[in-house]
## 1
Amino acid sequence: MEPLCGRERVGRQLKHLPVDRIAVSEEFWSYTIRHWEEQGKLPPGTDAVEHFKLDLDKCWAFNLRIDPEMADRLVAEDEETQTFVDGNGATLRRYRSHASTPEHINFSVVDRNDWEEKAKPFLTPTANRIDFEGYRAVRRACADAGRFFLWSGVNVFESMHPICGHENLLMGMALDPEWVSEMAEVYSDLIIHLWETLFAAEGKPDGIWFYEDMGFKGRPFMSPEMYRELIMPAHRKTIDFAHSLGLPVVMHSCGFVEPLLPYMVEAGIDCLQAMEVKAGMDLLRIYRDFGEKIALMGGLDVRPVANNDLPGIRRELETRIPVVKGRNGFILHSDHSIPESAEYESYRYFLETGLELGRY
Amino acid sequence: MTDFEALRAAVIKGKRNDVAAIVQAAIDGGEDINLILDRGMIPAMREIGDKFSRNEAYVPELLIAARAMQAGLALLEPLIAASGRKSMGKVAIGTVKGDLHDIGKNLVAIMLKGAGYDVIDLGVNCDITKYEEGVKQGATIIGCSSLLTTTMPYMKEVVAYFKDKGVKVVIGGAPVTQAYADEIGADGYSEDANGAVKLIDSLLKTA
């Protein structure tokens, strides 16, 4: 087969059509890129997508916070950390020196009454929620480079927990499911209305990428029944809308979400991304059980890369890629992202070995 | 006469008001608080924990059961102090230095409290000094949690520091495995929150 460009390759892989080689994508911690720049491995300001010739790129174009105009407001700091109140009214603490999931200090929305008063009236599809310019720039760069371009952003679960916190949201799913259903519906409608505005103004992307972390180590946050009842209708609505525009949908989830996967497939996802090995996700098992229905991106244990264990990287790739490339629907990606402990050469080895094994 | 079965069921179903009502009625009726705890509330939390381990219950059910348990404990706490009831053990738990993630640590704390342990929640970003504060407050077991591969190595320092100090260190978190626990010489590892309770039961031989 003649070499394909990234746009053709990813587009075909999401439909399980034959390709020249598996496509490649990756996410890097910001401190990883900085570390490599400081070492002189990357020129300052390098775009990793361009440098590593990745096949797709994405643009996070929406701000779904309750107050999209509010910048994070610093409320406390010490030598190591800074505490902010964000546009959702949530108080979060982050490290100054490195990337990490923030500590959840406080949330202004804890139940239905707070939602009705402090959130719902403000979640309207106004143009100030959309980064038109950013979207236009990445879309144009992808078109120029022949890369697959995805609109990226959160779906409903990742929209709801930032306003009320995981604990309040999960308790709400058990104690007041109608409230959670309503929040999910409001956010799914918001996303669709904003898409209509953006795509009318700037044109469509090649696909949609949803971030939707619904699991942790060994289990999903919710039961499959709760997913089906409270979250899946919103997923189906947004995915159906994307499909009506001819856009395939990639869904990212951290954690162990295999029990939800039958319903995520029923909701219409075209590709599952991340598949964290350390959380219990097993690429080969998922490929066996779902590989005919959806494409898969990731599922390759990042720990050998993080530990700069080159034989371990090769072992990880050799035991999986020859199998999972079988239905043309596998895209090379670590099982989450490349952390700052990974040396440039280790990622390069992961990439080159993966591509070598992923040729057809 | 307290209906312990009704109390147990109310905790499991997360019926906070029902738990408070049953416990208040039991207190008013002069019920032995040890029986309220040992025949009603603690077995309920252990049962929901076991359901969690079998994937018959998920985090939402765990959280509302803990909330219901807390409603009963709030009524019992003044009486527990006065009764001289012996603690099952004191555990100091915290997310390790460099890591601000607390959901997993909070779940373990909830399950330990539900199982009857005294829990000192040290919060996040805990260095050895912070863990030592927990020991000074009487903890005989330290629980270390981490989310990130980059913060996990600090557990090795904690384990090394407390070795031979009469304190056991147990570990858990997304990147942590039994193999890693063995490698650094930790006293135990658990895959999930309910497993952490059973692990500490076994270390303190309270089960």
## 2
Amino acid sequence: MGQPQTVAGKRNQTVHTKIPISILAGYHVNSNTPSDDYLIPLSLTWSALGSLEGGQVTYPKPTLEKYEFAEKPLSVYTGNFDLGVSFKISATAAAGPGVAVGKLRYQACNNKSCFQPKTVDVPVPYQVQ
Amino acid sequence: MSAPRYFAAALAITALLAFFLHDRSSGSAKAASVKPDGDRREAPNFTLKDADGRTVHLSDYRGKVVLLDFWATWCGPCRIEIPWFMEIERQNKDKGFEVLGVAMDDEGWESVKPFLTEMKMNYRVVIGNDETAREYGGVDALPTTFLIDREGRIAAIHIGLADRRDFEDGVQQLLQPPAAGRTALPAGPVAAVSR
């Protein structure tokens, strides 16, 4: 599995990167727009942006999957997918490297069990040119 | 380790653990609804609060058969089982049986109380914590349900969504009176009995 490319650009420039995610076969995480209010969505937020601004996340299109424990299909992510992220490099950014840190929250299940929601850090390296 | 690798690893660990736990659970559930007497270990006691703020000790239930369900409001499979447990509670309440739910929601009563109202839950629920979960083997996968006999010993464990029949059969087996001529002993070491 790869890692997000270092975000590189000049001040005021908009840059993009992808966060690659892999889910083992037989498991899923709820999408960012779950089918029911009680389900915990996948979400990526930013706890530290450094010299970057924005951090708008583009979630891929979820799939609708039917599971034994739900009457209707659920909006989920399975397998490999990427989260797209857009940043604007600050007008006052100092040249050089830095790291933005995201918080990825997810809640995984299989067809029989669900697992406690987790939040993991997602560092995104950047280079102001 | 990079973030995506770390994330993938975290998911992989969770998934593998789930597979292991599920496999273990399925095997025991299919073999028998409840373990033989000699294979049962004492259910760890705990002290937790119910929705009315009352203190609940598991040991208060000694003498009753207990279905102890670890669940959460965000857990789809748990939501399937809860109505079963409500029905089993209704059917067996007068026979020395009780369901006790342990909600594992991080937000506690803020999330759980509205759910209790919505579901019209007819059994007692307490809010669990890491210590309680650890005492019961981690409870990483929800639902995880323990059937506890009248002597306070764990007679069955179901990890993940199980068959309703397994719960019903297990409860009925545990509610049976001891075989004639035998006395149910309290949990704990039992010395050899001289005749």
